[in-house]
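Page 42, continued from yesterday. The earlier attempt failed because a stray header line got pasted into the input along with the sequence. Redoing it now with the clean sequence only.
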Amino acid sequence: MSDTERDASEDTQNEWTNRLAWFLTGAIIGVTAALLYAPQRGKDTRKFISDKAQQGRDAVTGTSKDIVDAGREMFERGRKLVEDAAELFERGRKLVKG
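This time it went through. Structure tokens are written below.
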């Protein structure tokens, strides 16, 4: 893997982390605003909060699955890079010996 590919992979990972952080920040701000301006009865407000919390959990679950998939892909790329490096090392060793 070249330096350019590695940098692109790190940029993608940083982008996902940044998106997740902004999503969670927005969700917290939204819930706080909803609580402060809720014109409903307590029971209705609790139901609303419960529904929004479930939506947040679903979103985080979906995002975490994407992150896990990206992590697996990066792991496989790293494993391939190590295998390639070991092969190059072995070829170099054989050239030096003989």
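Notes: Helices lie at 3-36, 42-97.
Reminder to self: strip header lines before submitting.
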